[in-house]
Input
Amino acid sequence: MKSNKISFVGKKLILLTLLTGSLFAQNQKMQIFKPVTSTCPQSWLDDMKTQVDDVQITTLRDIKGLKFQIGVPREIQSCNTSIIDDYIFEGNVPAKAIKDFFKAIPKNSIGISLPAYENDKEIKTVYVIFEDKTYKEFGKY
Output
């Protein structure tokens, strides 16, 4: 006789499927701005495409002008600048850091950054950027 109940293993598979899905809200759009001479790793771009419903990549000649205009402090700039829901994600910010940011957006923040000098480190420090162009550590990833 078959049972209509879902087995423990079946429940674990369903939960795993739900947890490995998109980290961000559905129907979000991510606009990635990268310089003409970008060295952004394809693995990071591919990861973002699996996490966000709509990823658009735009190549710019004057990316430094964009960074200045939107308020990314020079000390924590990186290769690319992304925007999701009017928030800035500077550099190759780990998906987990973006998820953590959206879980509890810090007051007066405009986004987070993984500075270029953090890219090659095993444990990376991500910084939160505030409206007044100051920043502080957000977390280690």
